[in-house]
Predict the structure.
Amino acid sequence: MLQLLKRTKGKTLNKVGKSMISIYMKKKNIGDLKDFGINMETKMLTVSFVPTYFSEEVRVEVTGYNIIKDKLSNKSYLSFDSINTSKNWNDSKFKKLIKKNKIEIPEKYSKFIDLVA
């Protein structure tokens, strides 16, 4: 039963995370999401995308992710320890797009994440 709950939680978090990251990338004009994965045990996210005005796919690894809730603003964020991009793209370009190592989670996704995270 516990394994089933973990798998369900993982699948839900993966689907919500993929949708959220895809919307964030479109909103910030970063590029088109190709692949998204989340490992709840190692606290690692992997994202593959083709940046706007760039022809090669970029792979991003985000380590030490966490979901935090700001009680004053009632907003949720995806925070993380570090970001590493594949060799074909400069890390500093990507880091400029993400301020203070966190991304605001849209309210409609925040409710789902609160249930499973």
User: Anything to note?
Assistant: The longest strand covers residues 31-39. The beta strands are 31-39, 44-51, 58-63, 66-70, 75-79, 82-85, 102-105. The two ends are 18 Å apart (CA to CA).
